[in-house]
């Protein structure tokens, strides 16, 4: 099975006060967010990063060796219209793969174990979503399931939803088979509302939409809640810099 990593990395991290993409943030003298993610993702067939106009030259320069040998590529999201828009802006790059693994561009805690489990569950599938999850306190997002385990919806703190004290968060990693995915996205975007706060066409509610379209939604539990943490604030960045040696990629 041909699997492509798709990494939306247009965000600069406004709350961080950063002047470069979060993907390129330095975690130590020798490590960046990208170097850690690349080490985990190197088992896949291709790595594709989606950048903003400002971040495009910086990311292209940082990935120049992998780009030169055809292992990585970078494309542009002209305007910040959400992660779903970013993903499908790059459809021509990953459309020939059999599956994609979407990874947010600030997942410094991504583990090899989570990636490998995700890819294994995509093997041989035609219309499947693999959603690694962690049960955690004060989740940033929370996936809602029916009593029989069917994915029904998702709450998002960033859109002003009322969040539970404990909930099932994702870890910024999503496995999807490619067959039929673009057509499903076009149906979704035809009726999906913009986010209440961000005014973006969000990617996460697309997953319950796929469940309603009879896609096979597979979940598994990640034990380390640090994998769910992105880098959105100075405190997040400090957290990863201090715990870098304790988190195994």
TrEMBL record:
Keywords: Magnesium
Ribosomal protein is among the record's keywords: no
Protein name per the record: Bifunctional protein GlmU
Pfam families: NTP_transf_3
Domain of life: Bacteria
Classification via InterPro entries: MobA-like_NTP_Trfase (IPR025877), Nucleotide-diphossugar_trans (IPR029044)
Source organism of this protein record: Legionella geestiana
Gene coding for it: glmU_1
Alphabetized GO MF terms: nucleotidyltransferase activity
Gene3D superfamilies: Spore Coat Polysaccharide Biosynthesis Protein SpsA, Chain A
């Amino acid at each position: 099975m041909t699997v492509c990593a798709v990494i939306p990395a247009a965000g600069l991290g406004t709350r961080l006060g950063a002047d470069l993409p979060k993907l390129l943030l330095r975690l130590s003298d020798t490590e960046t967010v990208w170097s850690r993610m690349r080490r985990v993702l190197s088992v896949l067939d291709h790595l594709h990063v989606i950048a903003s106009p400002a971040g495009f030259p910086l990311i292209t320069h940082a990935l120049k060796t992998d780009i030169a040998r055809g292992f990585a590529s970078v494309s542009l999201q002209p305007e910040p219209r959400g992660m779903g828009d970013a993903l499908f802006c790059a459809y021509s790059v990953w459309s020939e793969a059999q599956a994609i693994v979407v990874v947010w561009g600030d997942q410094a805690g991504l583990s090899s174990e989570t990636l490998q489990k995700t890819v294994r569950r995509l093997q041989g599938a035609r219309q499947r979503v693999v959603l690694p999850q962690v049960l955690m306190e004060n989740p940033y997002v929370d996936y809602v399931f029916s009593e029989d385990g069917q994915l029904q919806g998702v709450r998002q703190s960033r859109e002003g939803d009322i969040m539970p004290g404990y909930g099932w968060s994702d870890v910024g990693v999503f496995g999807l088979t490619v067959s039929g995915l673009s057509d499903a996205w076009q149906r979704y975007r035809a009726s999906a509302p913009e986010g209440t706060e961000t005014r973006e066409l969000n990617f996460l509610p697309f997953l319950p939409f796929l469940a309603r379209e009879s896609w096979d939604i597979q979940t598994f539990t990640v034990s380390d809640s640090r994998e769910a943490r992105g880098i959105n604030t100075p405190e997040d960045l400090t957290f990863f810099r201090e715990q870098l040696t304790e988190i195994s990629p």
